[in-house]
Amino acid sequence: MADKKIIAVVGATGAQGGGLVRAIHSDPDSPFRARAITRNPGSDAAKALARLGAEVVAGDVDDAASIERAFTGAHGAYCVTFFWAHFSTEKEMEEARLMANAAKKTGVAHVIWSTLEDTRKWIPLSDARMPTLLGKYKVPHFDAKAEANHFFTDAGVPTTFYYASFYWENFILFGSGPKPGPDGQLLLTLPMGDRKLAGIAAEDIGRCAYGVFGRGGELIGKHVGVASDHLTGLELAAKLSRALGKPVKYNPVSPDTFRSFGFPGADEIGNMFQFYHDFEADVNRLRDPAFSRSLNPKLQTFDQWLKENAKKIPLE
Ligand SMILES: NC(=O)c1ccc[n+]([C@@H]2O[C@H](COP(=O)([O-])OP(=O)(O)OC[C@H]3O[C@@H](n4cnc5c(N)ncnc54)[C@H](OP(=O)(O)O)[C@@H]3O)[C@@H](O)[C@H]2O)c1
User: Ligand 1: which residue has its CA nearest to atom 28?
Assistant: First the structure.
């Protein structure tokens, strides 16, 4: 154990970071050991990571000293921010800046920064096809992450810029799954027209990140996206129907209709889907399932994910 290189993992009890910790510790030949960073080392989730063999340390991305301590002696660091915990782009950027500085100060040799596209490069603020949000963003949780990239490059931190895709778990946890329409028929309502959505099982994001660290420095300075499938609304609905044993109909709506749904973040998620729809080719080119599988041979397809998880999708 002592000769293994440490990978410090932010968000270790969550989706992305948790997948990485479990990937490291499910490989008996791994050259790495995970250092799981959590605000609460006493939680059940943290204890479960310790049982796998991970070192569990206290750290909060709003507390620079704690992150510097947690990165000290680490070979690698997985850096992720938590937009949906606070809905603040300022906070997200400050947390990224803090992690980049900590990585620089402690001499981390390889950071994976979980970023997303700056959608304003495709659809400038002046373009009225999509509303501008918070005064200076099109998709705030994308744009702010991209804006934070420079903290890593400016600090000279060896960084892989890492792009997750739509988690299939959003069908369980985020209310994106099929819901009964007025006549009781299950409807999968997405503003994706006939375009393909890139998606992935949350657990596979961390497994692919393990593959990135496993390639040594090969992917430093590169922009790497991951996805298991690119599927249209019709294809998603057909697969959901088969897995649920109930017919699911794709209900394509316009981005404006989606934004008007009124749940917290509906305008932001509507903009995100419009970005996925309007710039499908660029979004999906970056998130190549074949390359993702080369990083993570266990990559689950949507069908495989459904086999394990369809029963957890709330249908109300
Ligand atoms: N959902 C999607 O489809 C999707 C797609 C692409 C990208 N993303 C991005 O993914 C990011 C979230 O990653 P995730 O899904 O892995 O998160 P997550 O599952 O919500 O996990 C967050 C974990 O991070 C920890 N955490 C929260 N605040 C913290 C803080 N201040 N300091 C240290 N740790 C903290 C929490 O652990 P403790 O309580 O143990 O500290 C929690 O378990 C978001 O920024 C989102 O934009 C999401």
Answer: 82
**Strand duo 110-115 + 76-79: pairing:** parallel
- Quote the longest CA-to-CA distance of the chain: 62
The response to whether residue 89 sits with its C-beta less than 6 Å from ligand 1 reads no
Of the candidates 209, 223, 84, 89, the one whose C-alpha atom is nearest the C-alpha of residue 147 is 89
Please, are residues 80 and 111 in contact by the beta-carbon 8 Å criterion? no
- Helix (H, G, I), strand (E, B), or coil: what is residue 238? helix
Q: How far is the CA of 107 from the centre of ligand 1 (A)?
A: 24
Helix ranges, the chain (H): 15-25, 44-52, 64-71, 83-86, 89-106, 140-147, 149-154, 170-173, 202-214, 233-244, 255-259, 266-278, 280-286, 289-295, 302-309
Q: Residue 276 Cα, ligand 1 centroid: separation in angstroms? A: 21
Q: In what order do the strands lie in the sheet with 248-252?
A: 179-180, 186-190, 248-252
Q: Which residue is closest in CA terms to ligand 1's atom 12?
A: 82
State the pTM of this model: 0.98
Return the CA Rg of the chain.
19
Is 222 strand, coil or helix? Answer: coil
Q: What is the pLDDT of residues 175-229, one digit of tens each?
A: 899 999 999 999 999 999 999 999 999 999 999 999 999 999 999 999 999 999 9
Q: Dump pLDDT digits (tens) for 61-114.
A: 999 999 999 999 999 999 999 998 999 999 999 999 999 999 999 999 999 999
Index of the ligand 1 atom closest to the CA of residue 62: 31
Q: Residue 117's CB: how many other CB atoms inside 10 A?
A: 20
Q: Whose CA is nearest to atom 43 of ligand 1?
A: 14
**What pLDDT digit, counting tens, does each position of 292-308 carry?**
999 999 999 999 999 99
Q: DSSP string spanning 264-300? A: TTHHHHHHHHHHHHHTHHHHHHHS-HHHHHHH-TTPP
Which helix (DSSP H) or strand (DSSP E) does residue 114 occupy? strand 110-115
